Amino acid sequence: MEIIQGIQSFRKKCDGCAVVALGNFDGVHLGHCEIINTTVKTAKKHGAKSAVLIFSPHPLSVLAPDKAPPLLMTMEDRIHMLGQVGVDYVIVHPFNREFAGMPPESFATEVLHGKLGVSGVVVGFDYSFGRRGLGNPAELKLLGERLGFTVDVVNPVSVHGEPVGSTAVRKLLLEGRVEAAADMLGYPFYLRGEVVHGDGRGRTLGFPTANLQVPCEIIRPAHGVYLTKALLGEERFWAVTNVGKRPTFCKTEPSVEVHLLDTQKNLYGHELMVEFIQKIREEKAFSGPEALRAQIRNDIDLARTIIAKS
User: Fold this and answer.
1) Per-residue confidence (pLDDT) for residue 164, from 0 to 100
2) For the chain, which ranges sit under pLDDT 70?
3) Considering 105, 162, 257, 275, which one is annotated as catalytic?
4) 257 tagged catalytic
5) Is residue 3 within 8 Å of 49, Cβ to Cβ?
6) pTM for the full model?
7) Distances from the Cα of 206 to the Cαs of 186, 284, 294, 302, in angstroms?
8) Radius of gyration of the chain from Cα atoms?
9) How many CB atoms lie within 10 A of CB 288?
């Protein structure tokens, strides 16, 4: 897979020989994978290359910052996962108000046909484009017929009777339903970040934790304690992770604290990836350190029980 910075650079690579998937693809969930798989298959059928066009930053962060959703993953992780699905190119194009103000017909004519020179495009059933999102798949099909490119519209993917979507995944995570979120994503939701120094409270309690510094734009699951898996390079460890504000010690800043089970490692300065497997309990305040220490023991015992049954 090759990363292309800006639509103006793409045609030099692939003039008129690409099928391009359009969308935001935050999370690269099962619905997104269906769109990408359709793109790859269509491209191979016609002897073309497959590509994905994504925008940075998220359009809502430009148009309505107060309504911009927290992201499911960083751009780096999104690109990596798109490559794993099998596309030939990922085109990352800067999004600004000028681009957002382009009418749907101009987007199809000037961008898809003129600058990208697509032979086909693939979109989800709910795809919108152009100024104020007024363009829809039906209009795109008509424009494609006129301009000479095909348009495939992918039907919704459902899990347990619910349509898969980034908004639905975010809602599940904010409810702490990480197992249901994993079903929609097709993999466990994870947080990735550098391990930084905290206040040492966990070590004082006898349960040292790695404090994960997660990019501020990335969503956190609901506050609480979770059974997790921690990935350090090729090594994998079971862990118990607390997401929240540590109310027992009057801390107000959000935190992600990871306690590795059955191993002790100096993780400071290392990048750690933490997969969320199951919620153990809600976050709550305790009367003091001893009560909290007892609860952490219970949390670890419960985590071990769940692991033994898995």
Assistant:
1) 97
2) 14-16, 198-206, 246-254
3) 257
4) yes
5) no
6) 0.90
7) 36, 19, 11, 18
8) 22
9) 10
Q: State the Cα angle at 57 between 56 and 61, rounded to 5°.
A: 155
Between CA 107 and CA 135 the distance in angstroms is: 9
Backbone angles phi, psi at 224, to 5 degrees: 155, -170
- Name residue 290's beta-bridge partners: none
Q: Which H helix or E strand runs over 80? A: helix 75-85
Q: pLDDT by residue (tens digit) across 221-275?
A: 999 999 999 999 999 999 999 998 754 433 445 689 999 998 887 888 899 999 9
Tokens 């990208």 belong to residue? 116
For residue 234, what are the contacts with CB-CB under 8 A and spacing of at least 6? none
Helix 178-185 vs helix 166-174: crossing angle, to nearest 10: 160
- SS3 state of residue 18: strand
Please work out, in degrees rounded to the nearest 5, the angle formed at the alpha carbon of residue 36 by the alpha carbons of 33 and 42: 140
